[in-house]
Amino acid sequence: MTDPISTTFAALADPTRRAILARLALGETSVTELAEPFEMSLPAVSKHLRVLEHAGLISRGREAQWRPCKLEAEPLRQASDWLEFYRRFWEQSFDRLEEYLQRVQAEQPSKTRKIATRKPATRNGSIGKQAKSTHSNQREN
């Protein structure tokens, strides 16, 4: 048995299924209406819906001939919580890296810092003139 978060991410991996979820975020709708924007058969769309339903991302009702599909928020909340943990981890890692780089830069002698912050040679025009003459030679040929 696969854990729920893996099932959720597997279902979210497909762009068609993500588009279906985006449509369902606007409100419940029928399978036929969900299938309209896609260039695929109704059975193919139904297969995508089964994957989403298996992941708990949607639920399907039955009202006479109409089978409304509805977005279910809980699996998305769980995925968001999982991602949030790692977002905080990476933010803290980048903050520590920034602090380290600032400390290293502050320890560098001022001459080294000036060399590292010099403007590129293209700003003084020497390379620009060479590129212009090369370009004009190419036009003449």
Write the layout of secondary structure elements.
Layout: H1 4-12, H2 15-24, E1 29-30, H3 31-35, H4 42-54, E2 58-60, E3 68-71, H5 74-107, H6 110-116, H7 126-140
Antiparallel strand pairs: 1-3, 2-3
Helix pairs in contact: 1-4, 1-5
Structure in words:
- It is a single chain.
- It contains seven helices and three strands.
- The longest helix has 34 residues.
- The protein is mainly α.
- The protein has a three-stranded antiparallel beta sheet with strand order 1-3-2.
- The chain has a domain of 69 residues: Arc Repressor Mutant, subunit A, CATH 1.10.10.10.
- A hairpin with a 7-residue loop joins strand 2 and strand 3.
Largest sheet: 3 strands, antiparallel
Percent helix? 55-70%
Mean pLDDT: 82
CATH class of the domain at 4-72: Mainly Alpha
CATH architecture of the domain at 4-72: Orthogonal Bundle
At the fourth level of CATH, the homologous superfamily of the domain at 4-72 is Winged helix-like DNA-binding domain superfamily/Winged helix DNA-binding domain
Shape: elongated
Overall number of strands: 3
Per DSSP, what share of the residues sits in E-state strands of 2 or more residues?
A: 5-15%
Q: Can you write the helix and strand succession as a string?
A: HHEHHEEHHH
Indicate the structural class: mainly alpha
CATH topology of the domain at 4-72: Arc Repressor Mutant, subunit A
